[in-house]
Amino acid sequence: MKLFIYDHCPFCVKARMIFGLKHLPVRLVTLLNDDEATPVGMIGQKMAPILQKDDGSYMPESMDIVHYIDRLDGKPLLTGKTNPAIADWLQHVGGYTAKLLLPRFAHADFEEFATDAARRYFINKKQASIGDFNQHLANSADLIAELERDLQRLSPRVVSAEAVNGELSEDDIHLFPLLRSLSIVAGLALPENVEAYRNRMAQRSDIPLLFDMEQ
Question: For the GST N-terminal domain, which residue ranges apply (predicted)?
Fold first, then answer.
């Protein structure tokens, strides 16, 4: 199977996770960020991730891909209960983390930005959505301080480094991609158990963190 992705994209990380967790092979294909024709040709719109199944058909939507792959062998891994507090926490920090992450993604060495046109496409689209990147970068200290306070609130909810609630669940598929994205933010301190969870989930999912692009 092939999985068409952007490396920076947390939704793509969700889809990648299930292959790593289940030790299943998949060919990753990184799309240029300004390539609209390829995804539109597959599914009728520009989005990622897109799974090309063994029969050649295409499946969009990260959680649809996760559920499909998890249940394919009749032995699902994501059987643990979810904790509404994790979803609430993600919704809360999601209100401002894009201001920390998107300006840094825009300057990082991701394969989807291999051309100047692809990088410019991303910058123009995202600045239209969240505002001037330079202004957000200038406000990084305040945003990092707010996030570190919120990460302290997350800490007691992380039950184990092996799975946020003790047993693998959809909460892991939603939480790890954000924590992975945050590894690009220089100077951000995570509580010890949250960092241990992030490191272990990166290992289990076979998805590298972004420390080599830290800004």
Answer: 1-77
